[in-house]
Amino acid sequence: MNNFNLHNPTKVLFGKGQIENISKEIPADAKILLLYGGGSIKKNGIYEQVTEALESHKVIEFGGIPANPEYSVLMEALGIIKSENITFLLAVGGGSVIDGTKFLAAAALFEGDSPWDILTQNIRTEVGMPFGAVLTLPATGSEMNSGAVITRASTKEKYAMGGPGLFPLFSVLDPTVIKSIPQRQLANGLADAFVHVLEQYITYSVGADLQDRFAESVLQTIIEVAPKILKDPSDYKAASNFMWSCTMALNGLISQGVPSDWSIHMIGHELTALFGIDHARTLAIITENHYLHNLDDKKEKLAQYATRVWNVTEGSIEERAKAGIQKTTEYFHSLGIDTKLSDYTDDYEGTAEIIATRFTERGWLKMGERGTLTPEDAASIMKMSY
Amino acid sequence: MNNFNLHNPTKVLFGKGQIENISKEIPADAKILLLYGGGSIKKNGIYEQVTEALESHKVIEFGGIPANPEYSVLMEALGIIKSENITFLLAVGGGSVIDGTKFLAAAALFEGDSPWDILTQNIRTEVGMPFGAVLTLPATGSEMNSGAVITRASTKEKYAMGGPGLFPLFSVLDPTVIKSIPQRQLANGLADAFVHVLEQYITYSVGADLQDRFAESVLQTIIEVAPKILKDPSDYKAASNFMWSCTMALNGLISQGVPSDWSIHMIGHELTALFGIDHARTLAIITENHYLHNLDDKKEKLAQYATRVWNVTEGSIEERAKAGIQKTTEYFHSLGIDTKLSDYTDDYEGTAEIIATRFTERGWLKMGERGTLTPEDAASIMKMSY
Question: Would the pTM count as exceeding 0.90?
Answer without folding.
Answer: yes
